[in-house]
Automatic annotation (TrEMBL):
It comes from Dillenia turbinata. Belongs to the disease resistance NB-LRR family. This is NB-ARC. Residues 1-149 form the RPW8 domain. SUPFAM superfamilies: P-loop containing nucleoside triphosphate hydrolases, RNI-like. Keywords: Plant defense, Repeat. GO terms for molecular function: ADP binding. GO terms for biological process: defense response. InterPro entries: Apaf_helical (IPR042197), LRR_dom_sf (IPR032675), NB-ARC (IPR002182), P-loop_NTPase (IPR027417), Powdery_mildew-R_dom (IPR008808), WH-like_DNA-bd_sf (IPR036388). It comes from the Eukaryota. Transmembrane segments: none annotated.
Length: 816
């Protein structure tokens, strides 16, 4: 933007003020002044739009604007003379009136000449650019639909549903990235935010605000990706999600590490404050003023961009409000979700579509979700949806409630089980990625689904834009673990799930949920504890809990218990004794240290428990009085400390005689897998992943004669695989990738006649293959590095697919 653009706007504004004064005082110039006021009021918004558009004008246009700025400057000087001229000086007033008429004609010629030409040119360029963008989006949408159309639910070679869903997640991310170009409001917002954070050292804290689902986070992420912003801050940009229940100290340390340019657990007060290295801190989803005050570092060169539904005027110097989409932009975005193209198809009822779009009030999230919910539905469904939407009040100051009412319409056309699965998502903390393994287990137990049915529901919710699939770099096919894909959800949609789940009497609700972390259980629960709770799903989110912090409650129908907390110690609730039908127990510690669990006696009553998930826990040694958990099928230990407990509590065959799946992920202190694991005769899936200290595996692996899937990846200190693995008669999948010190495959690996796939990417020391591989008659796919791929290709199997692995593994989810 040239300086003239800014000056023209300021001159026009000042001239307008003086012309209004002239209409009240100077009789001879009133007519010209009124005409000029009309022209300037018409052109001033155009000048302001040029100022904030971020578009560099061509030389011809800039020269026209320069000449017009000179005209306005002369007009401002002339207006000043008119106001100063005495009424008795008739001759001078006549001269000034003549000059005012001349100024009026000059402005009129510009308005009716060059300005109209510029507007027409802009319209042409905008149409061309929009068509080009929508064509790109349409092509990507078609490719997504083709992939989803070919998705198969099944087993064996036809079971490609997980791979297709993963591809869909990748394409969806690209689609989302292009949506920011759809609205002029976003472009203006980007320009305004850049003006606030570049070259404005007088404002240390600025903001982006707007209602939920309006694109605040999208705008903030675009700012972080902008080359001009990255260059100005020399790539010293950190994006942090704060949320309603933040770990403030952890956030402060991460901010400090970025400012000081070093990793530190504390604050270095010897840091040279005068250096003033430019740093941009983006705080997304801020809810509390008290939290925000703790996260602001007022240091030279440090700029904080606050993204929130609230303005925080006492802290934020200036705030950019994200605008809702205009009518044509809203229609285009809605059509992309509902029809897969940028316009209304000729087969659709345009009037009905317009009425539905109008009810969305330009909110991007509402347009996407409602559009996707009505996709491929008959016209009667559309008419019914329009009627339901019309019953809500217009968006105003109570927009949050109105949004929930509108968003609830998008769930009305879901099958009952699909809708119930959506409502279950309210049981998890905001702004977290939910491991798919947890969701699948939860839905299988509470809704009587098969695993593949549960995953199909997940795909449907993703297709309806009610959730987002987040893929880890390792996910890809039927043998991929569920926890390699996670689910995220916009906070407005989570609010919707909570809103719908919390209807009716608290004792009769199907879900008993705590929306955010609190220091104790809700008082409403305590007031109603004299009657049993009918909830199937119970979700609790607190800090450390002691025995006295719990009060007695009865849950005769509870099947899932989710315990989210932050602390070093946690007393398991005594009311677990009153959960006779408990099937899934999920315990997740959100603090930075491992937590010690107390009151382990509750495990003695979990006779119906089928799934157990520990995260950031010191795995305890179970009491000797613990009875066999005959129904337990799955145990997952994630980011946990297992040294003193894994062989005395988890790998105890007589306690878990029917265990079929065991996962140990990111257990840094696991050095040796105890031999007792070979006594788990029903085990079908064993995953030991990202355990950097693992050195030894038990020699007697062959006793696991039901094992079908073995994952031992990301274990850099493991040097050998025991020969007993060659005695596994049902093994179909072996993953040893990223075992960088593994020197060779077992000599008799050819005995694994049912082995279908091997993943051995980044096994840097394996440079030869055993002769027995020619007997792997079922082997159809190998993933490896390029250096060893030729060895597999020379095996001579015509149906063997050798895939060269892509480099790099994304572990960003660990710090979310």
């Amino acid at each position: 933007m040239a300086p003239t653009d800014l000056f023209a706007g300021e001159i026009a504004t000042e001239l307008l003020k003086q012309l209004i004064t002239i209409t009240r005082k100077a009789c001879l110039c009133k007519s010209s002044a009124r005409s000029l006021i009309g022209y300037i009021e018409e052109i001033l918004p155009i000048i302001q739009e040029i100022k904030y558009s971020g578009v560099e004008l061509s030389a011809v246009r800039q020269s026209h604007l320069d000449r017009f700025s000179e005209t306005l400057r002369d007009g401002l000087e002339l207006a000043g003379k008119v106001l100063k001229s005495a009424r008795w000086n008739v001759y001078k007033n006549l001269q000034l009136a003549h000059k005012m008429e001349k100024l009026e004609k000059t402005v009129s010629r510009f308005m009716n000449g060059p300005l109209h030409a510029h507007v027409l040119a802009d319209v042409h360029h905008m149409r061309f650019e929009s068509t080009e963008r929508f064509d790109r989006l349409e092509n990507k949408t078609c490719r997504i639909e083709q992939r989803l159309g070919s998705m198969k639910i099944g087993v064996g070679d036809g079971a490609m549903w997980l791979q297709e869903a993963t591809i869909r997640a990748e394409e969806e991310e690209k689609f989302e990235g292009n949506l920011v170009d759809l609205g002029v409001g976003i472009a203006l917002g980007k320009k305004k935010v850049k003006e606030m954070i570049i070259g404005r050292d007088d404002m240390c804290t600025v903001g982006i605000c707007g209602i939920g689902g309006s694109g605040k986070t999208t705008l903030a992420r675009e700012i972080c990706r902008n080359n001009q912003v990255k260059s100005y801050y020399n790539n010293r940009i950190v994006f942090l999600t704060v949320s309603q229940s933040p770990n403030v100290e952890q956030l402060r340390q991460r901010i400090w590490a970025q400012i000081a340019g070093r990793n530190s657990n504390g604050y270095d007060f010897q840091f040279d404050w005068k250096i003033g290295v430019r740093t941009l801190i983006v705080l997304d989803d801020v809810w509390s003023l008290s939290v925000l005050e703790q996260l602001i570092f007022k240091l030279p060169g440090c700029k904080t961009l606050v993204v929130s539904r609230f303005k925080f005027p006492t802290i934020v110097s200036v705030c950019c409000e994200v605008e809702l989409l205009k009518e044509d932009e809203a229609m285009s975005l809605f059509c992309h979700s509902a029809f897969g193209q940028s316009t209304v198809p000729f087969t659709a009822n345009k009037s009905l579509v317009k009425q539905v779009v109008d009810e969305c009030k330009g909110l991007p999230l509402a347009l996407k979700v409602i559009g996707a919910s009505l996709k491929d539905q008959p016209q009667m469904f559309w008419a019914s949806a329009k009627t339901r939407l019309a019953k809500g009040e217009p968006i105003c100051e109570s927009h949050e409630t109105n949004l929930l009412k509108r968003m609830a319409t998008s769930t009305n056309y879901l099958h009952e089980k699909v809708r119930e699965c959506f409502l279950d998502l309210g049981a998890f903390p905001e702004d977290t990625r939910i491991p798919l393994d947890i969701l699948i287990n939860m839905w299988v137990e509470t809704h009587d689904l098969e695993e593949r049915e549960a995953f199909a529901i997940l795909v449907e919710l993703s297709n309806k834009n009610l959730i987002t699939l987040v893929k880890d770099a390792r996910a890809g096919d039927v043998y991929s673990s569920y926890y390699e894909i996670s689910v995220s959800q916009h906070d407005v949609l989570r609010d919707l799930a909570l809103h719908l789940s919390n209807q009716g009497n608290i004792n009769a609700r199907r879900r008993l949920l705590m929306p955010k972390r609190e220091i104790s259980l809700p008082r409403e629960w305590e007031r109603n504890m004299d009657q049993p709770f009918s909830a199937q799903v119970v979700s609790i989110h607190t800090g450390e809990m002691k025995e006295t912090d719990w009060f007695p409650m009865e849950f005769p129908k509870a099947e899932v218990l989710i315990l989210n907390f932050s602390g070093n110690e946690y007393w398991l609730p005594t009311f677990i004794h009153n959960m006779p039908n408990l099937r899934a127990l999920i315990i997740i510690n959100h603090s930075a240290t491992f937590a010690v669990l107390h009151n382990l006696e509750v495990f003695s009553n979990m006779t119906n428990l089928r799934s157990l998930w520990f995260e950031k826990i010191t795995v305890p040694e179970l009491p000797e009085t613990t009875i066999a958990l005959n129904n337990l099928r799955k145990i997952s230990l994630v980011l946990s400390k297992v040294t003193n407990g894994v062989d005395k509590s988890v790998i105890v065959p007589h306690l878990f005689p029917r265990l079929t799946e065991l996962t140990l992920d990111h257990c840094d202190d696991l050095v040796e897998l105890p031999p007792s694991i070979c006594g788990l005769h029903q085990l079908q899936i064993l995953s030991i992943t990202n355990c950097p200290s693992l050195r030894n595996l038990p020699m007697d692996f062959g006793r696991l004669n039901c094992l079908e899937i073995l994952r031992i990846y990301g274990c850099p200190t493991l040097k050998s695989i025991p020969s007993g693995i060659c005695e596994l008669p049902w093994l179909k999948y072996l993953d040893i990738s990223q075992c960088v010190n593994l020197e060779c495959l077992p000599d008799w690996i050819g005995q694994l006649r049912r082995l279908e796939k091997i993943d051995m990417r980044e096994c840097l020391k394996i440079r030869c293959l055993p002769n027995s591989i020619v007997f792997l008659e079922s082997l159809s796919r190998v993933i490896c590095d390029e250096e060893i791929s030729w060895l597999w290709k020379n095996v001579g199997k015509m149906d063997l697919c050798v895939q060269v692995a892509d480099e790099g593994v994304n572990l960003d989810w660990l710090i979310d």
